[in-house]
Amino acid sequence: KVKFTVRDLDLFYGNFQALKNINMNIEQGKITAFIGPSGCGKSTFLKTLNRMNDLVEGVKINGEVTLDGVDIYKDFDAIMLRSRVGMVFQQPNPFPMSIYDNVAYGPRIHGVKKKSALDEIVEKSLRQAAIWDEVKDKLKKSALAVSGGQQQRICIARTLAIEPEVILMDEPTSALDPISTIKIEDLASELKKNYTIIIVTHNMQQAGRISDKTAFFLTGEVIEYGDTE
Ligand code: ADP
Ligand code: ADP
C-alpha cells in the first residue's frame, strides 16, 4: 500500500532550487532509504513530508504530496500532520528534562493527564525503542545524563509516544558509535512491522543492511529509485 505520493515536487530556498521535479510513491510498512552526497536535498525532501520546511522564510514549494491520499499542504494542519509523521534527528536532542518527561511530553500536549496512563505510555514507548531495561531505574534522571546512543533511543521513544504512522529519520546514526548504530538499525528493522520508516543516510552499507527501497539523490533530483537489492 502506498503511504505517500509525491508528484512534480519542486522546492526553492529563495532563488536556489533545492528539489527538482520529484515523483515518488513511498510504501507503507517498509524502510525507504534516501542516499546521496552531502547537500543534494535528502534532508530537504524528508522535511517536505512533515512540513518542517514550508513555513521557513523564503521557501517555495510546487507540486503535490499526499499522505493516505490526502494533500498534506492543502488539507492538513501542520501540527496534526506531525503527530502522524514523527521525526528523529541526526543529533540526539532530548529536551533538558527527565527521561520520563521527555517521553510523556507529546501525550501530555495531546491531553493525557492521568499518571497511570502516562506511566503506561512511557513504559511501552521505551520498550518499543529497546531502551527500557537500561533506563527503567532512572526515569527521573535527566535525559542528558545518558550516552548519545541511549539519548537517541529515548528520542525515538519520545516520537513513538505520539503514536505516529510514519517515522522520518534524518541520519539518525551519524553521530553515534558503531555499537549504538547497530542497535538503532536493528530497532528500525523491528519498527517497520508497525510503522513506515524513511531514513536519510550517506552510508550505502547502512541502506543495504536495513532498507527495502532506496532512492539516490543527486543535486536535487532523484536519479534512481527502486528495490534496494
Ligand atoms: P542533504 O540532506 O542531502 O545534505 P540538504 O537538503 O540539507 O542536503 O540541502 C540541500 C541544499 O539546500 C544544499 O545546497 C543546502 O545548502 C541548501 N539548503 C538547505 N537548507 C537551506 C535553507 N534553510 N536555506 C537555504 N538553503 C538551504
Ligand atoms: P514543568 O515541569 O515546570 O512543567 P516542563 O516539563 O514544561 O516544566 O519543562 C521542563 C524543562 O524543559 C524546562 O527547563 C523547559 O524550559 C524545558 N523545555 C520544555 N519544553 C521544551 C522544548 N520543546 N524544547 C526544549 N526544552 C524544553
TrEMBL record:
Q: What PROSITE patterns does the record point to?
A: ABC_TRANSPORTER_1, ABC_TRANSPORTER_2
- Where does the protein end up? Cell inner membrane
Question: By its UniProt entry, which InterPro entries does this protein fall under?
Answer: AAA+_ATPase, ABC_transporter-like_ATP-bd, ABC_transporter-like_CS, P-loop_NTPase, PstB-like
Tell me the Gene3D superfamilies matching this sequence: P-loop containing nucleotide triphosphate hydrolases (3.40.50.300)
Cellular component (GO) terms are: plasma membrane
The GO terms this record gives for MF are: ATP binding; ATP hydrolysis activity; phosphate transmembrane transporter activity
Q: Name one Pfam family in it.
A: ABC_tran
**Single biological process term from Gene Ontology:** phosphate ion transmembrane transport
Q: Which UniProt keywords apply?
A: ATP-binding, Cell membrane, Membrane, Nucleotide-binding, Phosphate transport, Translocase, Transport
| Residue ranges of every copy of the ABC transporter domain listed in the record | 4-229
Q: How does this protein lie in the membrane?
A: Peripheral membrane protein
Supply the PANTHER family for this chain. Answer: ABC TRANSPORTER I FAMILY MEMBER 17 (PTHR43423:SF1)
The protein's job, in short, is: Part of the ABC transporter complex PstSACB involved in phosphate import. Responsible for energy coupling to the transport system.
Q: What is this protein's record name?
A: Phosphate import ATP-binding protein PstB
Q: Could you tell me which species this protein originates from?
A: Anaerocolumna chitinilytica
Lineage, opening ranks: Bacteria, Bacillati, Bacillota, Clostridia, Lachnospirales
